[in-house]
Amino acid sequence: MQRIMVMGSSGSGKSTFARRLSDITGIPVVSIDALFWQPGWVESERSEFRKRLAEATREPRWIMDGNYTSAEGELRREICDTVFWFDLPRRTCMLGILTRIAKSYGHVRPEMAPGCPEKIDLEFFHYVWTYRARQRPNLLAFFEGLRRDQTFITFTDRAQADRYLRDLAPVPNLASVH
Prior knowledge:
The chain is an alpha/beta fold. It has one domain (3-167): Rossmann fold (3-Layer(aba) Sandwich), CATH 3.40.50. It is built from nine helices and seven strands, in the order E-H-E-H-E-E-H-E-H-E-H-H-H-H-E-H. It has helices at residues 14-25, 32-36, 46-57, 71-79, 90-104, 122-129, 131-134, 136-143, 158-168; strands at 3-8, 29-31, 37-38, 42-43, 62-65, 82-86, 151-155. The strands form two sheets. The protein has a five-stranded parallel sheet with strand order 2-5-1-6-7, with helices on both faces. A two-stranded antiparallel ribbon has the order 3-4. Helix 1 (14-25) runs parallel beside helix 9 (158-168) and helix 3 (46-57) runs parallel beside helix 4 (71-79). It is globular, with a radius of gyration of 17 Å. The model has no long low-confidence stretch (mean pLDDT 91).
């Protein structure tokens, strides 16, 4: 694994997974949200976003956290070697965003662009609530474009992701423990 995409609904745990995977592998995380958003939750110009994303994908190693399946996604899909998909139930994702808001309200999370503090956003709640019906079919179509030489791993609950990371993490050398 050198170029990794972590995809799924907001609130599914993909950013946390990406950070933990980075801690284990040493591969840097690139937050697509941080590339897309400007301070004050202003969307980037499409051409500027594409330029920033193209620069990030040229790096030899990355873990990209976020969906964006249009032209930007196709570029990443073409050069990635691994995709992790968080296909979690609506209730898990809704609880995830509510918990995140409770913990981070008014603060900028590590994976967000500067000047984009956590907030209560009813439009965002609606996006997550309707994700499985509206966005999931787009991701399924996007995944059909993966090649046979690319690894595709689906998590349907967070415990699966936790087990994957635990199994991937190096076992401490017990001989060096006093």
